[in-house]
Write the structure tokens for this entry.
Amino acid sequence: MNSAVAYRFVVCSSLLLGGLLSAKPLTLSQNSDSLPPNSDSLPPTPLSSVLSSADSQSGPLPSLSALQARYKALSKQLSRLKPQEPYILVDTARNHLYLKQRDDVLLDALASTGSGTILPKPGGTTDQWVFDTPRGEFFVRSKLLNPAWVKPDWAFIEEGLEVPRDQADRVEQGVLGAYALGFGNGYFIHGTLYTRLLGKNVTHGCIRLHDDDLKRVYRVARIGTPIIIF
């Protein structure tokens, strides 16, 4: 198991145990309103019977002290597995990008991520473009100054325009900001002209930032910097 997979496994395990430790005690209501329809003749099930049944199926439940010890062990393991160098964390649900180094948040930036909209491809096929920001672990593969946007086919089709044959007709300057960080398959962290839309899911899959935030991320990141998107 590599360090990235181990890191995600320990994160999930730690969150699960944290939830168990903070969960409220189980209570079963014997109020008739909580019974399913047509169950007037069914006697209430004692809580002890429910627990006994659960124990017989899955074994004895771990004690609170055992859960706490396991949680502490996972927390220590998680801390050891965190990247030592700065890394980029992107929350597509909240549209925030974090520049972190271990537990320290170096930057918390408002972002825009994929809209999730679907555009059918021409030609009468069932193929389509889905404009989602990919989830998973990636790495900075390229760093560009004053990047030009080479518009893909979907950019013209979306606008109701004919796809040009000349490659030069695809190039558009000044729409991606002063910097761009590529992380594969045509996806970039870049700037935007539409700063009023930051914080919303409006992109075709790329991650947009305000110029000031983008500049800081660009300066700190290097080729190979981890990018974790969820």
Observations:
- The first strand starts at residue 87 and ends at 91.
- Residues 191 and 212 are 9 Å apart (CA to CA).
- The two ends are 20 Å apart (CA to CA).
- The chain has two domains: 3-81, 87-229.
